[in-house]
Amino acid sequence: MDIRNIAIIAHVDHGKTTLTDALMRQTGMSGAGVSMDSNALELERGITIYSKNTSVYYPPKGGEKETTKINIVDTPGHADFGSEVERVLRSIDSVLLVVDAQEGPMPQTKFVLKKSLELGLKPIVVINKIDKPAARPAEVEEMVYELFLDLGASDEQLDFTTIYAIAREGIAKAKLEDDSKDLSPLLDSILKQVPVASTKGAEAMPLRMQPFNLGYDNFLGRLAVGRIYEGTIKNAQNVIVRREGKENRIGKIAKLFTFEGLQRKEVNEASAGDIVMIAGLPDIYIGETICETPEQEILPAINIDPPTISLNFMVNDSPFAGKEGKFVTNRQIKERLEKELEVNVGLKIDFTRADYYKVFGRGEMHIAILLENMRREGYELQISQPHVIIKEKDGIKMEPFEEVTINVPNDMSGAIIETLSKRRGNLTEIKPEHGNTRIIFEIPTRGILGYRNEFVVQTRGEGIMYTRVIGFRPHTGEIKKHETGSMVSMATGKALGFSLFNLQERGALYIGANTEVYEGMVIGNVSKGEDLRVNPTKGKQLTNMRASGSDEAIRLTTPVDLSLERGMSIMKDDEYLEVTPKSVRLRKKYLTENEKIKAEKEKKLRESNKQV
Ligand SMILES: Nc1nc2c(ncn2[C@@H]2O[C@H](COP(=O)(O)OP(=O)(O)OP(=O)(O)O)[C@@H](O)[C@H]2O)c(=O)[nH]1
Ligand SMILES: [Mg+2]
To answer: Can you give the C-alpha Rg of the chain in angstroms?
Structure first.
């Protein structure tokens, strides 16, 4: 049977998953209401986090015409998961580049298209959401063409096919004015445009396969998803795993699956061109070559982007520790993190310290997803402030940089440019865009860590901001940020509305009335820089304010919701974020002034001892 391998790529929210779901439905691979976004967090956030495989048959199996199997990889559009897309692109033969007919090409469109063109792929462009009232498909098509040109597309790549779609209704058209009721115009062009995945020659050769994704199963252990380039892989087959600069390893395939809709189907063998999932190789890794004989050439490695930020995970030792979590010990946290390493390719963890584990990731979102998954499973822990990773190359200090693309109402652009310039950003582009201003900066990750919240406030929620890591560059020196101070509780007990009413004038609160607090817990910020110790449990009778008739009418501003991501971005170096299944709390590392003074003394003592 003919096989075609494609990935669906786009900027976040342009409709990749909706399109994949519709393709599965229309080819009879899944029922109504079934989605590739199946993970709980994906459903909740409405975004794709993990790239996933499926396959459909077209024309349907058992019909008059011979069927073709189309392996499809649905990829995430969020930039923090961009390296996931890159790995996938190495293993497929063409992409559907989905572009929103109103928004047009966006930063991640550019990134994924650039990677695809560099790999020599010839994309099929899908202009999606043409049903939107403000859709402008012809204009967007022109913009996509310009983007191809800018990115140095070859003549062949420039000659791309465009399909117009309403993925949500499962409709695709070859021409805008066509009448269409389904996705067959898209499926037809996939068969026509995407190269056949294999040849008779390749099928006759000895096995060579390369994993581009990892998975984990409680019974089968580590799983690897990969493409078979040559030969046939069989269940129970002995294989050799090869990797540049490493000794060959031997292993045995314990189970073999192909993808069918959302299911995996156990098979006894699969041949060149197909994408399969294998079990039985507990230490298999992305990019390794699985082959039959020790002499076979190693396939070109698959690059995995290095982490850019790090933070410490540790046992929660706050006064409220252990009240809400099921798994709270050092050992339980360690085991969970070890399990995560099985599948989370961008993640690295240093387990050498006894009192904390240092976790390295690709961005705040990457880490937040891990933490969110852990708390849902019942874990409780504490984390330190995320820091960017500083490296040394040829004696030069290097730090990660990001490209920040911002779209704001025109009158706000001045303030944004000023803020980002102060944070050592370099303005690379500024131009009008649908009545707004589009600004592109290259800036050290350090400069925008935690900036997202400020941006929302600064633009009154009207701005859009995308960031993407662009690599390590020489360190730019100190960055001064205007920071608020923390409002810290000096008492343990129940926060009272009356005190909070008075405190809310000093800054934004993170808690509402009747929240249990402890000494050292951060309950809000203070607009004037310095930290402030306050007593939120103080009742009315303890103040020297006179009771008045208006007391019942105390109005509290809605507190700032301390989500995981917000907590991570506003926390300070001398604070920890407590993460439990029920709460996210911010606290000082040293809960009382005394503890802090003691710790500072001890530190000085240690340092002077060292000098002696
Ligand atoms: N109007 C309209 N909305 C659509 C269409 N296709 C998808 N959407 C909506 O766009 C939103 C995002 O769709 P998804 O399919 O999740 O987008 P995605 O590209 O997979 O997003 P990520 O995986 O998070 O990058 C959803 O609310 C869809 O219902 C369409 O053709 N027309
Ligand atoms: Mg998606």
So the answer is: 27
Best CA proximity match to 371, nearest among 589, 573, 83, 571? 571
Is 444 within 8 Å of 421 (Cβ atoms)? no
List all residues 6 or more positions away from 215 whose beta carbon is below 8 Å from its beta carbon: 222, 223, 224, 225, 277, 343
Quick one: pLDDT at residue 60? 83
Helix (H, G, I), strand (E, B) or coil at 65: coil
Contact 560, 511 (CB under 8 A): no
- pLDDT tens digits for 86-113? 889 999 999 999 999 999 999 899 999 9
Task: Judge contact between 105 and 99, C-beta under 8 A.
Answer: yes
| Distance of alpha carbon 224 from alpha carbon 90, whole angstroms | 15
Half-sphere exposure of 483 (CA within 13 A, CB side): 18
List residues bridging with 266 in a β-sheet: 257
Tally of helices (H runs) and strands (E runs) in the chain: 16, 34
> Which amino acid, residue 168?
R
Q: Which of 4, 556, 606 minimizes the C-alpha distance to 275? A: 4
Phi, psi for residue 222 in degrees, rounded to 5 = -70, 140
Average pLDDT, the chain: 91
Going from the Cα of 338 to the center of ligand 2, the distance in angstroms, rounded, reads 27
Count of alpha carbons within 13 angstroms of residue 150, beta-carbon side = 12
How far is Cα of residue 2 from the mean position of the Cα atoms in its chain? 34
**Probe residue for ligand 1, chosen from 13, 41, 48, 126 as the CB with the greatest number of ligand atoms within 8 Å:** 13
Residue 603 phi/psi, 5° resolution? -65, -45
Q: Which residues surround ligand 2, an ion (CB under 5 A)?
A: 16-17, 48
Q: 299: which 2 tokens?
A: 């396939």
Decide if 55 contacts 69 (C-beta within 8 A).
yes
Question: CA of 280: how far to CAs of 206, 252, 263, 547, in Å?
Answer: 20, 6, 19, 73
Q: CA separation (Å) from 52 to 33, 91, 214?
A: 17, 13, 11
C-alpha 83/C-alpha 469 separation (Å) is 10
> Maximum Cα–Cα distance for the chain, whole Å?
92
3-state secondary structure (DSSP) of residue 588: strand
CA of 78, closest atom in ligand 1: 25
pTM of the model: 0.88
Q: What is the DSSP letter of 169?
A: G
Q: How far apart are CA 316 and CA 577, in angstroms?
A: 9
Tell me what pLDDT residue 548 has.
47
Q: Which residues face 171 on adjacent strands?
A: 166
Which residue in 76, 73, 66 sits closest to 95, CA to CA? 73
Orientation angle between helical segments 451-458 and 413-422, nearest 10 degrees? 160
In angstroms, the CA 275 to CA 183 distance is: 23
Quote the distance between the C-alpha of residue 313 and its chain's center: 19
Rounded to whole angstroms, how far apart are CA atoms 18 and 167? 6
What are 230's two structure tokens?
A: 């040559």
Q: Specify burial of residue 369 (Cβ count, 10 A radius: 0-12, 13-18, 19+).
A: buried
Tokens representing 555? Answer: 């109005």
pLDDT over threshold 50, residue 549: no
Contacts of 245 (CB under 8 A, 6+ apart): none
Q: Which residues line ligand 1 (CB under 6 A)?
A: 10, 12-18, 47-48, 76-78, 128-129, 131-132, 166-168
CA angle (610 as vertex; 606, 611 as ends), nearest 5: 120
